[in-house]
Amino acid sequence: MTDGVTTSEMMTVAAARMLRNGAVCFVGIGLPSTAANLARLTHAPDAVLIYESGPIGAKPSVLPLSIGDGELAETADTVVSTPEIFRYWLQGGRIDVGFLGAAQIDRFANLNTTTIGPYNSPRVRLPGAGGAPEIAALAKEVLIILNHDRRAFVDKLDFVTTAGFLDGHDGRARAGLPGKGPAAVITDLGILRPDPESKELVVTDLHPGVRPDQVRERTGWDVRFANDLRTTEPPRAHELEVLRELLRRTAEAHGMTA
Amino acid sequence: MATICTISEAIRDLLHDGDVVAMEGFTHLIPHAAAHEVMRQGRRDLTLVRMTPDLIYDQLIGMGCARKLVFSWGGNPGVGSLHRFRDAIERCWPRPLALEERSHADLANAYVAGASGLPFAVLRGYAGSDMPEHTGSIKFISCPFTGERLAAVPAIRPDVTVIHAQKADRRGNVLLWGIIGVQKEAVLAARRAVVTVEEIVDDLESPPNACVLPHWTVTAVCPVPFGAHPSYAHGYYDRDNRFYTAWDSISRDRETFTAWMQRHVLETRDNVEYRRILSEDGFGGGVP
Fold it and tell me: Which residues pair with A214 in a beta bridge?
């Protein structure tokens, strides 16, 4: 990456730009939370951030380490119970964007957060579903952010925890999934979007300085590239400044080194 | 009518070997001190229910108290894996752990069904997921009005629910605020409920719509200041993020974990002693 911008910063900035101002966003912890808060602190001051622990309209000044930090409750418009979050707000159809991370993803943006290896004798036991299956089913659209490597971008998932486009085409409609599904997958190399017909993920954007062969090397399937492959606009000075300041405040508040 | 007693008495009288036990608290108000008492008293063969089995269940699982786990997300929030949880599933240590794995939306609805006296909950869930293939209790039904295919999941009806709250009054009415998670539903779904609190006061001074559990819905109320450490109690103390990070290395291997549990939990008499040992290790431990 150019000018001292890290690949991680580029990924977060690119993901933040995807969240439009005013959108009601159901936020996962970690990278999605960083990107959603960067959006809120830059171009999307009216984005409404909802966390599954209950805060609606959270405006944290430092990033939460857990999904239920006190900072989220103190800065929210209201805090409701967890059943209410999932019943009225998510299932009730009030979420525009579900913002998720994942351990593994396949070419149709299905996600695995359950096991590596067989379910009953896993090589690695991952945390499990959390809120993801229903968030990805019911949000009007889904954004996914994760680091791009062969352990994550696999040809076949050992376990489909959360449906993306299943086996592609009209797979979502056949399974009875209400939302439109993943709109974009943002990584440290670029952005992938579903093909309008097949729903297979296609690389549409590469971050500055990233070559297609680097993406091929780090993807576990024969990944396709868009004909009009674009280059992501590098982080603007303001975006970088706000992101770095947010991470600095967070590290200070949590007693860590940035 | 709630009895006000020590947590040691409450666990002795109300939580038995083989019980279905829910300890709730969504990253906030996690009843750690109560779980330590369950380990001190050596309870076995528990079916543990919890949406997010974080450090509290990592400890109970590693100490061999659990036969089965009903859960939806098992990790150390903001840090990484739960090593005792993983060791139990990947290598059956210290004993095999049966799993009933569900999603957050499912368990939240299942607690509501339990509190409502219904046998099951209905939700728009699990479509396209592999989870129903591996969790036999997830079924699908057709809506009798529209024909829509919906998930049906069994209600959660714990023998005992254990939660931590900020305050109770002298009759045992309980007040909690901040991130309240599923605690109210978990208490109302249970046959018996044990609530540890930061303090007992003369008057709760609660506004009309506050989350109050009336004393007659709670079996025992136990004053345990700092009983949620290393999680937090809104208005009392912050989350001890350093402890969550330290837990990663404490719990990573079996010997270190067992020695830590021996010294901090099994060999301490109560939460006051536990906190004293913890402060010798350099953790806040909530020591005032």
Answer: none
| Pair A90, A142: CB distance under 8 Å | no
Inform me whether the C-beta atom of residue A221 falls under 8 Å from chain B C-beta atoms: no
- Average pLDDT of the residues of chain A: 95
pLDDT confidence of residue A256: 64
Per-residue pLDDT reduced to its tens digit, A146-177 = 999 999 999 999 999 999 999 999 999 999 99
Quote the tokens at residue A170: 């009209």
Residue numbers in chain B where pLDDT is lower than 70:
284-288
Q: Which CATH number is B132's domain given? A: 3.30.30
Does the interface predicted TM-score (ipTM) exceed 0.90?
yes
Q: Look at the block and give the residue holding tokens 């695995």.
A: A112
Give the Å distances, CA to CA, from B186 to A23, A123, B22, B122: 32, 33, 7, 17
Helix (H, G, I), strand (E, B) or coil at A16: helix
CATH code given to domain A7-253: 3.40.1080.10
- The pLDDT score that the predictor gives to residue B288 is 40
Asked whether residue B286 is domain-assigned, the answer is no
Among B127, B157, B154, residue whose Cα is nearest residue B138: B154
3-state secondary structure (DSSP) of residue A145 = strand
Instruction: Please report the pLDDT score of residue B239 as a whole number.
Output: 92
State the residue range of the domain holding B272.
3-101+158-280
Output the DSSP codes for A71-109. Answer: HHHHHSSEE--HHHIIIIIITTT--SEEEE--SEE-TT-
pLDDT at B283: 85
A162 touches B: beta carbon within 8 Å: yes
Does residue A52 carry a catalytic annotation?
yes
Domain assignment of residue B287, yes or no: no
Q: Provide the H-helix boundaries in chain B.
A: 7-14, 32-40, 55-62, 83-91, 104-115, 131-134, 183-189, 241-250, 254-261, 271-280
Calculate mean pLDDT across residues A80-92. Answer: 98
CA–CA min distance B27, chain A (Å): 5
Binned at pLDDT 50, 70 and 90, residue A258 comes out as very low
Q: Do B77 and B139 belong together in one domain?
A: no
Is the previous residue joined to A32 through a cis bond, with omega within 30 degrees of 0?
no
The closest CB to that of B105, out of A68, A86, A177, belongs to: A86
Kindly determine whether residue B103 and residue A52, on different chains, have CB atoms separated by under 8 Å.
Answer: no
Q: Does the predicted model carry a pTM greater than 0.90?
A: yes
